[in-house]
Write a structure and sequence with these properties.
The chain is 24% helix and 33% strand. The chain is of the alpha+beta class. It has an 8-stranded mixed beta sheet with strand order 1-2-3-4-5-6-8-7, sandwiched between helices. The two termini are 22 Å apart.
Length: 178
C-alpha cells in the first residue's frame, strides 16, 4: 500500500464530506446495525459484531490504507450529524470504486446524489475512472449513479454479508476529469 496524503474535506450545498473520526463510532454503529442499511451493502454484516465499526474506523484513519472514507455530516462546522458514509477504494490502473450508504432518516433526500456528485466533481484521488455496483432491488441507488453520469456496464453478482447470499447487481463506471 502507498502512503496516503491528507484526505480532503468536500463541501456540498447541504452538508460536508469529512474524513471519518473516532467520535463517529456510536452514530455509524447505530445506523450500520440497522438491517435496512446492512442489507443494501456488500460489506456490513447483520447482526453487526462487536468491534466491527471500531475496526472500520481504525482502518480508515491509517496513513497506509486502500480506502478513503468520508462521513456525510449535516451538522454545524465541526458537527457530527452522520447522514451516511461514502468511500473510495483504490483499484489498479488508476481507478477506484465508490461505495455509500445513507442513514434511513435521510432516505429520499438526495443526500447520496450530492455525495456521489461531490466525489465525481472533486476526484480527490485523481483517478481516471470510478466504478460502482448496486443491488437490483435498490433501484434508487442505481438512479443516484445514473444521475451522476455513470454508465451501465452489465449485470453481475456480489456476496452480501447481511443477507448471507449472493445478490444480483448492476455495475456502472464513470470516466473522470483530472
Amino acid at each position: 500500500m502507498e502512503t496516503i496524503s491528507q484526505q480532503p474535506t468536500l463541501v456540498t450545498d447541504r452538508f460536508v464530506l469529512r474524513p471519518v473520526r473516532r467520535s463517529d463510532l456510536t452514530r455509524i454503529e447505530h445506523y450500520a446495525s440497522d438491517v435496512r442499511v446492512a442489507s443494501r451493502t456488500v460489506r456490513i454484516p447483520h447482526p453487526l459484531p462487536p468491534g466491527a465499526i471500531e475496526g472500520f474506523i481504525e482502518r480508515a484513519l491509517k496513513q497506509e490504507r486502500d480506502e478513503d472514507v468520508w462521513v456525510m455530516d449535516g451538522g454545524e462546522p465541526n458537527g457530527s450529524e452522520v447522514m451516511g458514509v461514502i468511500s473510495l477504494i483504490r483499484l489498479d490502473r488508476n481507478q477506484s470504486e465508490v461505495g455509500y450508504w445513507v442513514a434511513p432518516p435521510f432516505w429520499g433526500t438526495h443526500v447520496a446524489s450530492d455525495a456521489v456528485n461531490a466525489l465525481v466533481t472533486s476526484n480527490p484521488l485523481g483517478h481516471d475512472t470510478m466504478f460502482a455496483s448496486v443491488f437490483h432491488d435498490n433501484p434508487a441507488s442505481a438512479k443516484v449513479l445514473i444521475n451522476a453520469g455513470f454508465q451501465y456496464l452489465g449485470d453481475a453478482e456480489m456476496y452480501c454479508l447481511a443477507r448471507a447470499t449472493t445478490v444480483p447487481t448492476w455495475t456502472y463506471s464513470r470516466k473522470l476529469l483530472r
